[in-house]
Amino acid sequence: xxxxxxxxxxxxxxxxxxxxxxxxxxxxxxxxxxxxxxxxxxxxxxxxxxxxxxxxxxxxxxxxxxxxxxxxxxxxxxxxxxxxxxxxxxxxxxxxxxxxxxxxxxxxxxxxxxxxxxxxxxxxxxxxxxxxxxxxxxxxxxxxxxxxxxxxxxxxxxxxxxxxxxxxxxxxxxxxxxxxxxxxxxxxxxxxxxxxxxxxxxxxxxxxxxxxxxxxxxxxxxxxxxxxxxxxxxxxxxxxxxxxxxxxxxxxxxxxxxxxxxxxxxxxxxxxxxxxxxxxxxxxxxxxxxxxxxxxxxxxxxxxxxxxxxxxxxxxxxxxxxxxxxxxxxxxxxxxxxxxxxxxxxxxxxxxxxxxxxxxxxxxxxxxxxxxxxxxxxxxxxxxxxxxxxxxxxxxxx
Length: 398
Description:
Layout: H1 3-19, E1 22-23, H2 32-40, E2 46-48, E3 59-60, E4 62-67, E5 71-76, E6 80-81, E7 86-93, E8 96-106, E9 117-124, E10 130-139, H3 146-159, E11 166-169, E12 174-176, H4 179-183, E13 191-200, E14 204-211, H5 217-223, E15 236-240, E16 244-249, E17 253-254, E18 260-262, E19 273-277, E20 282-286, E21 293-301, E22 307-312, E23 328-332, E24 340-344, E25 356-363, E26 372-378, E27 390-395
Parallel strand pairs: 5-8, 6-8, 16-21, 17-21
Antiparallel strand pairs: 1-3, 2-25, 4-16, 5-15, 7-14, 8-13, 9-12, 9-14, 10-11, 10-13, 15-19, 18-27, 19-20, 21-26, 22-25, 22-27, 23-24, 23-26
């Protein structure tokens, strides 16, 4: 084939990819060994795909819409709370639903490493009694195993159901949001990870506090003046304007066109959400979109009779020492395996670097090649570097 013929083929291929909603990138070859490895793998396990995983893979185009959702607060800056007692975050919410993500570490080492408590407190700012009801609850034991906490915490959040108990808070009164955080002893370098959704019917003030283990959070709130200064060097803190996205592919994946990647939470095509840090009175950026829910619907079809495998991988393993591992949890629709929540990976704590990938699901082709819809609930995994691409790989059915 001469150069003119080669360029003509490339032009035709580019047109096909554009029609399929796929941006041009280097083509990846799926070998028989790749397909065999995927077919033999159990859901959630690590699968070896040498030569296939790259950030230069063709990208699937999608559209993203902000959906109604709770007021969203995250506390992750300062991530390491270096002073023995202080408030890491203080934000006001209005009546309605609230999502709160607590991700803070006992960082006290001067003059000595000491045990602490990191707790979340809510204060009724209204003139009437406030009711608070928990809709989703995920609270992990403090640990230095950040990957396990992030993976487990997200899975528990997905699985949690509304609680029957409704607590009442008097005007001006403050109570712990999570009684378990009040009981936990947090040792040096241990992460406190809580992920909650609740509803209130009065305006309220939410504070994240580090104090000594013997002091109740509401008592510490009453005596602490001011909020710890943040340099906004970590994921972020504050009240953010987006908590839920709906993401849909602009056109259907066709297995005949080879593998394709879908990338969200990269800070580029999918920018970081913005909010405010009330304590500083400045705009805040949520670097990572951690805690934001991506409800995905991806169209696909098989015109060549192949199935479509979904894997994910740690694309940023080489960036720095903090990016050496990735662990996640997702909700995925039915395929070869049942639908539901899956911890990734399920057979190990983390996945490290290519050629390792994690098998999320294998979707079977329809009998007549009709278009189908894959449904996923994804949220950027805490403790992991981003993005964590979703890779769709055609595989032969055997």
